[in-house]
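Reopening this ticket.

The earlier resolution said the output was attached, but the attachment link was broken on my side. Pasting everything inline this time so it's all in one place.
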Amino acid sequence: MRLYTRDAGWERVRALARTDQLACCLHAQAETAAVLHRKLREGALNQDEPQILRSEFEKDSNASASRWLPLSPFLVLRLTSTYARLPFTVALRVADAIHLGCASDAGLTRERFSD
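Inline output:
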């Protein structure tokens, strides 16, 4: 969402977007819808803004502004296994784990997160 709103870290995300090197796991499309809903619920967006931002996001997605990485059943099994072995002292959100796994499966060597 930092491509479309001025949340913390938005400058860094937009700078990366200007390089035409954006790649994101496919589940981020659902995450985007959830973020718009949360921002509306919290009062950070007015009634019209979620649809406007959703339209911008869809336009960019249709124009291939991002490379959408697949989420495979193998990745889900690998993450399930990883969490079973993960020390209890490690905090790793599943959404972040999915992004890391998708990037790894795609052969990407550098990941950046905007949250």
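Reporter confirms the inline version is readable. The radius of gyration is 15 Å. The first strand starts at residue 23 and ends at 25.
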